[in-house]
Amino acid sequence: MANRLQVHKKKKWLRWLNIALVVYLLGGITLYFLQDYILFHPEVIQRNKVYDFSEKTREINVAADEESNINIVQFLTKDSVPRGVVLYFHGNRKNIGWYAAYASNFTANGYEVWMIDYAGFGKSTGRLTEQKMYDDAAQLYIMSHTIFPADRIIIYGKSLGTGVASWLAAKRSCKELILETPYYSMTSLLQYYVPIYPVSTLLKYKLPVHTYIALVNAPVTIFHGTADKVIPYSNAHRLTTAMHPKDRFITIENAGHNNLNDYPQFHAVLDSILQSR
User: Fold this and answer.
1) Burial letters for 70-107: b for 16+ Cβ neighbours within 10 Å, e otherwise?
2) In the chain, where are the structural domains located?
3) pLDDT digits (tens, 9 = 90+) for 166-213
4) Would you say residue 249 has pLDDT above 60?
5) What residues does 224 pair with on adjacent strands?
6) pLDDT class for 131, splitting at 50, 70, 90?
7) What gap in Å lies between CA 208 and CA 115, rounded to an integer?
8) Distance of alpha carbon 129 from alpha carbon 223, whole angstroms
9) Label partner for 131 (CA 20 to 30 A): which of 67, 84, 121, 212?
10) Integer Cα distance of 138 and 141 in angstroms
11) What pLDDT, on a 0 to 100 scale, did the predictor assign at position 10?
12) Spatial separation of the C-alpha atoms in residues 185 and 206, rounded to whole Å
């Protein structure tokens, strides 16, 4: 009788183990094949739709290749001669229209802002990959550099865009790299949320910010809030190990992921960068 109970318990334990294994494998498969839907939340806009921004703008569409188009909106200054240009790489939500409200932070200081939509966001088309984001960023830099010298180009990344901005600043010269709510790497960030999976193997988007900022020659300024619920402060703060003595990590107490713009400390530091010669 005792042996029969032991056998029954063992079978029951093995059955639950098999169920757990199946659930684990299904979760891993889902993570791999649906990661684009998990990481990116774009909003598509028809090409003939006209943006209605309060700022003075110019819209440009660049044929990156036969299958893709890069949509760029340039937010212009009131000054006839701008102080420089900010190449702005936005987060993982919606499109340029969602981030247009932040353009005045720069245009008020005499800087044009050139915002780019990633493939599949807004009016930009093509297949989104990490390399595609890098290639489009490089194209944006080439365009800006025909007008502005490197010491008048600021590269700015917000959230998802910090990986793209860091890559570009590591490859091209600029006045400054500014990162708002960055991550150490996309791999480390996803590992934080799903520690039971081999994320480095499953994830197609690595975006290793820590690797890139170590290669940036220009000054780097990072802004991050201690109450960020999307990208934990601890994950971003790891970037300090890759920063140079000239770089700054600005901690904004109690700030979240999307409200740094509400804090005077953020504007004080940002304005000091934009107003410097």
Assistant:
1) bbbbbbebeeeebbbbbbbbbbbebbbbebbebbebbb
2) 1-33, 42-274
3) 999 999 999 999 999 999 999 999 999 999 888 889 999 999 999 999
4) yes
5) 251
6) very high
7) 22
8) 26
9) 84
10) 5
11) 63
12) 6
Candidates 151, 157, 193, 201; CA nearest to 172 is: 151
Question: What's the token pair of residue 25?
Answer: 């494998």
Return the number of other C-beta atoms located less than 10 Å from residue 242's C-beta. 19
How far separated are the first and last CA of the chain, in Å rounded?
Answer: 87
Cα separation of 23 and 17, whole Å?
10
CATH number of this structure's domain 42-274, picked from the four choices 2.60.120.200, 3.30.540.10, 3.40.50.970, 3.40.50.1820: 3.40.50.1820
If one counts every other C-beta atom within 10 angstroms of the C-beta of residue 227, the result is: 13
Residue with tokens 């109690």: 254
d(CA 94, CA 157): 16
Q: Look at strands 176-180 and 220-225 and give their pairing.
A: parallel
Query: What would the pLDDT profile of 30-51 be if each residue is shown by its tens digit?
Result: 778 788 999 999 999 998 888 9
Query: What confidence tier does 113 reach under pLDDT thresholds 50, 70, 90?
Result: very high
Q: Is 0.90 topped by the overall pTM?
A: yes
Rounded to whole angstroms, the Cα distance separating 165 from 212 reads 9
E strand intervals along 137-218: 153-158, 176-180
pLDDT in tens, 65-109: 778 899 999 999 987 789 999 999 999 999 999 999 999 999 999
Q: What is the DSSP secondary-structure string of 180-199?
A: ES--S-HHHHHHHH-TTS-H
